[in-house]
Amino acid sequence: MHLAGFAPAFTLSLCDSERSRKPPVPIASVVMCNFKKKEKMGNLRAKSLIEKHGFKDSDLTTPQHDKILLWSVENIEEIINAVIVKEKIKFKIEAIEPEFAITDFNGYRNKSIIGFLDLYVRFVTEKTDKFEPQTYRIGIEIKSKILSVGETIRQLNFYKEFSNNHYWIIISPDDRFQDFFEKQNIKFYKYKEDSELF
After folding, report:
1. Quick one: CA dihedral 147, 60, 192, 78, positive or negative?
2. pTM score, whole prediction
3. CA–CA dist 160, 102 (Å, integer)
4. Per 3-state DSSP, what percentage of the chain is helix, strand, and coil (rounded to 5)?
């Protein structure tokens, strides 16, 4: 029976007709796609603040950097004696942490990573007749080679803005700029190549 006065509420186009023949996309595929997008965004957010500002320390991935780092951990008392204490007072290491995260809190429970110190050290001096025990914090950067003085200074100055260390030390076999660093209140310890770890 044909009803001349009846018209459908909507019309089905050829495009709609073609789509109607295709099977629906599985929900799992949609979820996985969204997960990958979020994972990618998460990786971007995972960068430290100093990396977002364009600084990348390529020295971190070199075997020489690891060698100096391991040697420094084993000989940290010698380093502190040489550049800070200078045999004037006895001290004890309270903490030593390689690849120490410098963080900043932006609001309630919102913590961001500023960057990573090669080595963080905390030591306390021994009580004497004249002085009470004092606790000191040290930030240490290791460089197998000083490729750029300006870049090294910028890196340490950036870290200083977000930390309260008493001393900053560069450990490197490359001592060409030692005087310059020390004038910037950055202590320097020359790593000697004959200090073999392996």
Report:
1. positive
2. 0.69
3. 10
4. 40, 25, 40
